[in-house]
């Protein structure tokens, strides 16, 4: 059985949604408080869930990056462990330099909370291997600081290494950028393809009665066969 460990900082508010989603898929889960000094040895996937760690003071994810547990997270990732950052988790991973780029305030300065379509750009990774390149999924977004930025040199590296995983689009797959992100980027991974980050919330798209179950195929990619 796949073991998913979910980080919890002061201000995290999506840890239980994430726990519900992975347990619904048959995984075993554990919520890990931010003062822990190691990642449980049986962890198959470490998730940094969404929310407002430390109230987003200074900058989203900027304080969480210095939590005690982050030293263990960095060691886990550098040893090849799989890490998924969702929304605030994505912001924490860029602040910790485990993923390139940064998340800025949305272009229109408004908090966005709605479903939005995403197009799969690369599926040569655990996260999106259950989907096809070109598939369009409908996943909730809820953020104020989701405007992904990376300079031209960094963008070229992302493209050359197939690190761009998801772009914001409309239902037909045409670019529709809700927050000003460079090249409409919604999700990326590191060069080694073991650290993933995205602003949308697949853990909130698990049941059609709630608007979409497109998150199921995304999270299933991490589960053991």
Describe this structure in words.
There is one protein chain. The protein contains 5 helices and 11 strands, in the order E-H-E-E-H-E-H-E-E-E-E-H-E-E-E-H. The protein has helices at 15-24, 69-78, 88-95, 152-160, 215-220, and strands at 3-8, 28-33, 45-48, 82-86, 102-104, 112-120, 136-143, 147-149, 164-169, 185-189, 195-198. The protein starts with a strand and ends in a 5-residue tail after the last helix. The strands form 2 sheets. A 9-stranded mixed beta sheet has the order 2-1-3-4-11-10-9-6-7, with helices on both faces. It has a two-stranded antiparallel ribbon with strand order 5-8. The protein is an alpha/beta fold and 225 residues long. The mean pLDDT is 96. It is globular. The chain has a single domain, classed as Rossmann fold. Helix 1 links the parallel strand 1 (3-8) and strand 2 (28-33).
CATH architecture: 3-Layer(aba) Sandwich
Say which CATH homologous superfamily is assigned: Class I glutamine amidotransferase (GATase) domain
Mean pLDDT over all positions: 96
Number of helices: 5
Rg from alpha-carbon coordinates: 16 Å
Order of helices and strands, N to C?
EHEEHEHEEEEHEEEH
Number of domains: 1
β-strand number:
11
The proportion of strand residues reads 25-35%
Concise overview:
The protein has one domain: Rossmann fold (3-Layer(aba) Sandwich), CATH 3.40.50.
List strands and helices in order, with pairings.
Blueprint: E1 3-8, H1 15-24, E2 28-33, E3 45-48, H2 69-78, E4 82-86, H3 88-95, E5 102-104, E6 112-120, E7 136-143, E8 147-149, H4 152-160, E9 164-169, E10 185-189, E11 195-198, H5 215-220
Parallel strand pairs: 1-2, 1-3, 3-4, 4-11
Antiparallel strand pairs: 5-8, 6-7, 6-9, 9-10, 10-11
